[in-house]
Specification:
The protein is of the alpha/beta class. The protein folds into 2 domains: about 5-85 and about 195-270, 3-Layer(aba) Sandwich (Rossmann fold); about 95-195, Rossmann fold, CATH 3.40.50.1000. It has helices at about 35-45, 60-70, 85-95, 145-150, 175-185, 200-205, 225-235, 250-260; strands at about 5, 15-20, 25-30, 30, 50-55, 75-80, 100-105, 120, 130, 155-160, 165-170, 170-175, 190-195, 215-220, 235-240, 270. Strand 3 and strand 4 form a beta hairpin. The longest helix has 12 residues, at about 35-45. It is globular. The two termini are about 20 Å apart. The mean pLDDT is about 90.
């Protein structure tokens, strides 16, 4: 369809449930787009079930309090899920990985607190490596040498958030998904969490009585994560142009190129989420 729309109100009557991405849609790093939150409030007020699906390493409680501190009315959300929450659940219930992890990027991990794992000072002391998407700072460092050593030790790589690129407070940067992709190409084992895994959408919608998939909209800024999940789920999709792909000029042409390049269907496109 590839229908460019300026306001969400234009297509509001077509949907009952909305799964919305976080970074690049309603947030930029840890800054909230006020007009995007206003749009979600309007969706809620019009009777829609509004849900959030984030590829961050944040737990759901972290996302909740981050948004609440930004004065976002949290009662508008029917449910929320994050890659960090999925990874935390996996690690809590899967003891086959061992007990020691190596933090690949060295940045703060939201997944590990409250879990019975210890941080290893070196790769040779680790049972697995782990990395989370970080929306506050750049991740463009070269980790090739570390990945090569991890591969030689046959360490699995737990990738929390599948984004190969993402919109951070410093602009578009490399996501941990790119590191995981590189590790897989080297022959390493990767265990990934987050979109485009359709389980994220299933989790959010499975308790909705009389859920109608044909009236579900997935909103996101990433073709590889959000739009692919939406396509795999069977929902309609809305791509935000000023997110990670940064194509606010010549939207129709760029959207066509992106759709062909990724082999995905985009139903609607907006420059930014607004009512």
């Amino acid at each position: 369809m590839n229908l460019k729309v300026k306001y969400l109100s234009r297509i509001n009557d077509e949907f009952d449930t909305v799964i919305c991405g976080v970074n690049g849609v309603i947030m930029h790093g840890e800054d909230v787009y006020k007009e995007s939150i206003d749009a979600l409030i309007k969706l809620y007020q019009s009777g829609k079930k509004v849900m959030l699906a984030s590829n961050s390493g944040w737990r759901v409680k972290d996302l909740y309090y981050i948004l609440k501190r930004k004065n976002v009315p949290m009662n508008i959300f029917y449910a929320m899920i994050t890659a960090g929450e999925v990874a935390h659940f996996y690690l809590k219930n899967n003891k086959n990985l061992g007990h020691s992890y190596y933090n690949l990027t060295g940045k703060n991990l939201f997944v590990m607190p409250e879990l019975d794992y210890s941080a290893a000072a070196s790769l040779v002391m680790a049972d697995f490596i782990i990395a989370e998407n970080d929306y506050k700072s750049t991740q463009n460092e070269d980790y090739s040498a570390v990945l090569e050593q991890a591969l030689s030790l046959n360490l699995p790589f737990l990738c929390v958030g599948n984004n190969t690129t993402l919109l951070s407070s410093n602009g578009v940067v490399t996501g941990v998904g790119a590191l995981a992709e590189k590790y897989a190409m080297m022959g390493g084992k990767v265990i990934s969490f987050g979109k485009p895994d359709v389980k994220m959408a299933n989790y959010l919608t499975e308790e909705i009585a009389n859920f109608n998939l044909s009236r579900c909209l997935v909103i996101g800024d990433s073709m590889a994560a959000d739009i692919r999940m939406g396509n795999n789920f069977g929902a309609k999709t809305l791509l935000i142009a000023n997110g990670v792909h940064q194509f606010c000029n010549n939207i129709e042409q760029k959207l066509g190129e992106l759709s062909e390049s990724y082999g995905l269907q985009v139903d609607y496109c907006m420059e930014k989420l607004q009512w």
